[in-house]
Every structure is written in structure tokens, then in C-alpha cells.
UniProtKB/TrEMBL annotation:
It catalyses: ATP + protein L-histidine = ADP + protein N-phospho-L-histidine. It comes from Lentilactobacillus kisonensis F0435. SUPFAM superfamilies: ATPase domain of HSP90 chaperone/DNA topoisomerase II/histidine kinase, HAMP domain-like, Homodimeric domain of signal transducing histidine kinase. One of its GO terms (cellular component) is plasma membrane. This is histidine kinase. Residues 235-262 form a coiled coil. GO terms for molecular function: histidine phosphotransfer kinase activity; phosphorelay sensor kinase activity. It is an enzyme of class 2 (transferase).
Amino acid sequence: MKMIYQQLMAFFLVIAITIVLLGLSFGRMSKTFVYDNTWSSLEKYSDSLIQHSLKVDSKHNDRVTFNLDKIRMTQSILENQSVHFTVFSAKNRVVYPADGVSPQITKNDWRHLQKDQIVRKVNNKNAKLKNGKTRPAMIEVLKPYYYKKKLVAAVTAGAFISDVNSNVARINRNLVKGLLVALIISMVASFFIARRLNRRIAMLRSGANQVSNGNYKVRLKPGGKDEIGELINDFNRMTASLERANLEIQRQEERRQEFLADAAHEMRTPLTTISGILEGIKYDVIPQESRTKSIELMSEETQRLIRLVNENLDFEKIRSNSIQLDKRHFNATKVFRNIIDQLSNKAQESNDKLVLNAADDLPIYADYDRFVQIVFNIITNAIQFTNKGTVTITGERGYNETIIKIADTGIGMTVDQQKNIFERYYKADASRRSGKYGESGLGLAIVHQLVKSHGGKISVASKKGKGSTFTIIFPDQTAAEKTKDAPDRNN
């Protein structure tokens, strides 16, 4: 399945689920709102009814009387809104209507009314009255009325629940229409967003194909500040780096070919001279008095060949040591964690435990690849000489520098071994020449040279049988390096 369809499906599921949840939530909220609004309206109607119909006669011991004509008038006015009243006296007797079929207040509800509590009820079932008729399901409010802290009346105001539910259904229909419109608009917007993302991904794919075909000059148009925009910027930096590396490879290849041509030319003359002298001696064509001079000439040409070979070796040594360090700032702790993951299996084979003591963000200024090589070689060496022990990697900041310590609880070294540990081809334990890690004697020598190339320091502290601790110090970026890097940042 193409990515655009996957993205559309993901967007659709997220939007659909969100809309369904919102619909359910708003549906419940709308029902609650309509019910609360109906109850509030019924309470207001009840208050209006009591204000117009209830009178207190102070001359006859505050006797309460009801004006039934006003009750009937209020009832007739509110009949168009399907509101029905029942008025009760303080003794739970029906005052209005006097048809004998009005609903009665239950003992439980009456206890709430006597405590001056308003009762809100929803009767979802039809009720059978005493006259045999059926009373539709209603939503009701029971409200008490007091005079001088005495209950004087109670009113039951009700409306047909079918009317209330019809209002709820109408609101829900409008809500569903709105949600459907929102879903359609969201899907259209999602399509254009997905198409834009896929267009940028297709651009990256096209650029990657060009790079795989050897075109390192390709550059993509940057755009956006999201992850894909950052990926495009990384891609452009990668192709720029590849182009520089390719140019360097071509330059080195040209230099190699020039060197081989010059070496072949330089070696041809002495080899021809030596071959000629050997042929003369073989077939005895060189006079006896000239043989001493011929041998001296052959010796000189041999020394010349030796010098050429040494120059070749020196050239390769210089080329390997004059590496271009790409120093930059990065988090050393991430490197430690990656290396620990890579070497965890080797550590388990020796029953060793790898421990990291460093902050989550440990800044360091170094060549990333060479830093990995340095730490990897030292940790590998520590695992090699440790069995059923612990290798601890510690990282901390110093004054304008980063300090790294790699300590093991292995076999340790003597004082003489510590003096020579960074020498080329030196092996602290000669018995491990054929060990499973293939120690060649070059690992720590390479580490030493790389640390020096960074302008840093490396030292070792060890006790025989107690383990070893390697301390590496990487200095921060100098003012000269900052000045040198400034033009690159401006470009």
C-alpha cells in the first residue's frame, strides 16, 4: 500500500474516532442541557403559579388559601407548552386539579420536600391513573414553598418527555450534520497534507536515486521546518560531504597513479642496472678488474631501491596519519550507550558488566567517527583483559574540557607495561596474541595518535591484578578553530 493511502487511512481513523467521541460527548451534553433547561423552566412556571394563586391571611393565624381561578388561568396559558401542574397543600392533599386522578407525591419525595429540597424526576414509563387512563411519560419537578419556615404548599410541574426528547433529537441531528461536514472538510484537508508530504518524500527518493547513480552534485530545494525539512537539509549536507569526499578520492587516486608512475620510473633504472651486472657476472663478460666496481654499483642501486621502498612506506604512514578531523560538538553519552549496546554480547561472553556513569547530555568537541574508534578500542581492550568483572565508563566536564575514564577490574599491568602500552606492536600480555579479539598490538597505539591529533591527553593508571583505568581528556574548541569555522557557518 502506498504511503499516501496509509497516511489518509491514519488521518481518517484519527479524525473519525475523534468525531465519534466528540459526538457522543456533545450528545450527552445536549441531553443534559435540555433536561436542565426544562427543569429550570418548570421551576419558574411553578414559582409564577404560586405567586399568583397563593395567599396568606394574617388575620386568621396566617392561614394559606389558593385562588383556583388564577391557577386555572395559568394552567390554560401554559397548556400550549404542554406544561401540567398539580398543587398540594401542606398536608399532601391535592388542591388542584380536583379531578381525583392527579398523581400523588411518594413518601420519599415528600420527605425531601419537607427538608426544603427540590426534586427533579424523569418518568420514562407511562403511568396508569385511578380512572383507568394512561398518563404519558413526563419530566417533572417537585418544589416546596415555605412561609415563616413552615411548609405551606408543594407544586408538581411536568412536561411530556416526548416533547423534551424531540428537542434533544433535533439538536443531535444538527450536531451529526455538523460533524459530517467537519469530517468531509478534514478528509479533504488530510488529502492535501498527505499529498504534500508524499511529494516531498518522492523528491527525497529521487535525490537518493541520483546519489546511488553517482551524482553527488544533486541538491534538493529546502522547505518547511518540520522533520522532513530537516531531513532535506541533512540530505543536502550529506551530498555536499559526499561530493567533497568524491573529489578527495579522485585527487588521492590521481596522486596514487602519479606516485606509482614515478616509483616505476625510479625503480626501472636501478633494476635494469642490477639485472645487467648480474647477467655480466653470470656469463663472465665483465672483466675481473671491473667486477669490484660493478658490485659497488649494484650495492648503490640496491640502497637506492631500499630508499625508494622506505619512502613509499613513509608516504603511506604520512597519508594515514595526516587525517582530516571533522571536529564538531555532540553528545558523548549517546556514543557510550551505542557502544555498550554493540559490546554487550562480548561482555556477556566474559561474564563482564558494563556500567555507564554520565549525565544524559555530556557535550564534547571531537571528530565523531574517531571518537567512537577511540572509546570502542579502549572498551574492547578492557573486556579482553577482564573476566567476571566490571567495566565502568565515566564522563564528566572539566574546565574547558571533557574528561572520560574507562576503568576495568581485570588483570591490570605492571609499571613497565604501563610505560610501553602505547607503543606500536607492544602487547602487555603476549599470551593473547591469538586471542578471540585478534589483538595486533596496534589498537592502543592508534588510540594514542588519535587523541594527540585532537590536541588531547591520554594516560593510564593500573595495578597488577587490580585492574586499569584509562583517562582521556578532550579540549573544547579553541578560539582559532572558532575563527576557522566561522566562514563555513556563514555559507
